[in-house]
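Lest this sound abstract, we let one protein speak, letters for residues, whole numbers for local backbone shapes, and leave readers to judge:
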Amino acid sequence: MHQVFGYGSLVSGGGERRVLRDHRCGWRVAMDNRATIPGYKFYVDPETGERPAVYVTFLCIWPETGASVDGVVFAVDDDGLAALDRRERNYDRRDVSAHVDGDGGPVWAYLASAAGRERFAAGHAAGTAVVSEEYLARVPDLEPPELPVLPLLRRDVGA
């Protein structure tokens, strides 16, 4: 079994409450909604069904001395970890054991990938970085973004 530190939408699955030290959480990773990636997702406008040319932004974490992130630690098997790796493609899985109290082996967390941060920076600079209303509703206890929040419908892409 593997241990994963979950924050944001990964908290909804439950787990043991923990704090990740020396890390910060914020809205700094995005996907390019214009790109179609097999096995991933894109978003459409619920009224028109059209796919807006935006960068959909998500929460992420990154190292920052003195900061902390509230979350949960939950267990997954090898298949569950592989599924999370596929789902969390805007992130890099890292060992954060030294920053989480507890025992029982490594604790993994998904930190913002360089590519995900670059997509956010591009969208932010162009004024096209947005947050999905549905995603924001799944993380109600976190600081809201300083970005437009749009009612977008998620569409999953087959492999």
